Amino acid sequence: MTEPVLEIESLDVDYGLGDDAVHAVRDVSLTLHRGEVLGLAGESGSGKSTLAYGLMRLLAPPGVIRGGSVRYHPADGDPYDVLRLTDRQLRDFRWAETSIVFQGAMNSLNPVHKVATQIDDVLKTHDPRSTKGSRRARARELLQLVGIAADRLDAYPHQLSGGMRQRVMIAMALALEPRVVIMDEPTTALDVVMQRQILAQLIELRERLGFSVLFITHDLSLLVEFSDRIAIMYGGRIVEQAQSADLYRDALHPYSGGLLRSFPALRGPRQELAGIPGSPPDPRSLPPGCAFAPRCPHAFERCAAEVPVLGTPGDHHSRTVACWLHSARPARPARPARPARPARPARPDSSARSVEKEIP
């Protein structure tokens, strides 16, 4: 898993205009490798979903991309910046190269159309020359791929259980065999047993088909079990990245440690659960230094004055952390402060010209 398939570099996403803009995602850089499951964890409001919608250019107004790049590496050809694609190129990119299972996926199906019709729409849009029979056959294949009987194609969403609707959404996301699948809290509304079944099936499909997964959730226990690598997000920034096993054994950032202590371990001695004191920060008025400092039991004077830089701490070459408790070598040069300026809200399918104006 050393070949990059998606590289997010210094991505900034705002909601609103000018001085009143809310900086929801701040200077985020992530790399998703081929065949990898990369987990993105954090409390509600940390910027996880905004990051996903930003890299797919699905932000609704008043969302706007203020800077950065999202480089996609296709199977054939040179990498390109998703943020600079034209509308036509963007339509070809979505579903075929990168697909997304939205938050609240159980309610993403159209209630007045059969499952077959909704899968057929995806296939027909990207391959207008396909026949109705071939699309029907592909729809049956997709349902069987996610463990649903083919006769459920003629069912309406309300005739399916929550887990089956979730699997239909995963089947639609895999319809065009994309190389990247983004899953935005797809199991939030499901019980624990169904969560494990769907995630186990997702990992099996990943191994069989070879796609990469960016899995977004607030439940770190899921990521520890199913992901290869985990990135922790807080206050719109990445505060720690590590292999799943390394993060579970030895979380370096106090926020990561707090998340790990918030759920019980299935093995080992009994331990008392300890939540994180306080509440997540208001993105409209973040503290001047480390955003986690007001809730951190280890905070000292420097934490309240300077924003820590994400870097490699000591001998931990395979992980990065943004915390003044660890002497870290910056992962990349710090970017100079960018002067605020008015920006237009991004439409869901904004053109390349408008994106270029939004990106300094």
Report the C-alpha radius of gyration, rounded: 21 Å
Strand order of the largest sheet: 6-7-8-3-9-10-12
And the CATH topology of the largest domain? Rossmann fold
The top-level CATH class of the largest domain is Alpha Beta
What gross morphology would you assign?
globular
**How much strand content do the residues show?**
15-25%
H/E series? EEEHEEHEHHHEHEHEEHHEEEH
* CATH-assigned homologous superfamily of the largest domain: P-loop containing nucleotide triphosphate hydrolases
Average pLDDT number? 86
How would you sum up the major sheet? Answer: 7 strands, mixed
- Count every helix, treating DSSP H or I runs of 4 or more residues as helices: 10
Number of domains: 2
Number of strands: 13
Structural class: alpha/beta
Per CATH, the architecture of the largest domain is 3-Layer(aba) Sandwich
Helix percentage: 25-40%
Quick rundown:
This protein is an alpha/beta fold and 360 residues long. It is built from 10 helices and 13 strands.
Describe the SSE topology:
Elements (H helix, E strand, L loop, with lengths): L3 E12 L6 E12 L3 E5 L6 H8 L7 E10 L7 E2 L5 H7 L4 E4 L13 H12 L5 H14 L16 H12 L6 E5 L7 H18 L2 E6 L2 H7 L2 E6 L2 E7 H6 L4 H7 L50 E3 L6 E2 L6 E3 L21 H7 L2
Parallel strand pairs: 3-8, 3-9, 6-7, 7-8
Antiparallel strand pairs: 1-2, 1-4, 4-5, 9-10, 10-12, 11-13
Helix pairs in contact: 3-4, 4-5, 5-6
Keywords:
seven-stranded mixed sheet, alpha/beta, single chain, 2 domains, Rossmann fold, 10 helices, 13 strands
